[in-house]
Amino acid sequence: MAAEHELSATSYIQHHLSFDVQSVGDNAFWALHVDSLVTGAILGIVATALLWWVVRGATAGVPNKRQAFVELLFDFVDDQVKGMFHGKRQFIAPTALTVFVWVLLMNAMDLLPVDIMAWIMKHVFQQDEFRLVSTADVNTTFALSLSVLLMSIYFAIAVKGLGGWIHELFCAPFGKHPLLWPLNFLFNLVEYVSKPLSHSLRLYGNIYAGEIIFLLLWLWAATGVSGVFFSAILGLGWSLFDAFIAVLQAYIFMMLTIVYISMAHESH
What we know:
Blueprint: H1 2-16, E1 21-24, E2 27-33, H2 34-56, H3 65-84, H4 92-108, H5 114-123, H6 138-171, H7 181-220, H8 225-264
Antiparallel strand pairs: 1-2
Helix pairs in contact: 1-7, 2-4, 3-4, 4-8, 6-7, 6-8, 7-8
């Protein structure tokens, strides 16, 4: 019985952690996680629509509640940008706000009851394996972090020029002597590689861990009446903590986005 329970628990977790994978052509290496792409795209549209809805109803007089909330959010993000970036903020502030809202919505999908959502996806949308938490997919977080890296490189070239960027790549931080060029390039290469790695894995690890803990709590509920009671109590407590983690990780991802783009504008 113990082996059977272990097998069922393993299959339960594996089922909820399985992606809807579609191969591209005959090459199994190139595959799309359809659930992460679809959920991320829908939440991106929702985030854009919410902000558009608020802006459309904005007035010059006394703001309504939704306008006041979004203005507080915008002022908060703008203050964070202003504290770290001293150039023109026409691009970086809206980008930071977009990143924060979008990542927050993707993180918040972890708060939905996993078994109920799985039943809905299976019986309503005929999707047996469909994960709704896009940021629990390392492909999503890497795509976001690589986008930030590309923006950083773009702004570095736009500000310093292609020649200036290449010069900095080979001549900083240890000096301009030709013998130091390989060392400088290796140092900068490590920096360019480590940024998206840390940026993406921090978000992925925290959201994925929260998803695992929820699954373990729901497994505990299957052990009997006492399991249902304790898993419900602990599940409520973890939901509150997980909501805090969702906001915190969205904030950290936004802040690192601001930091990396700001660093691209600086000269060594």
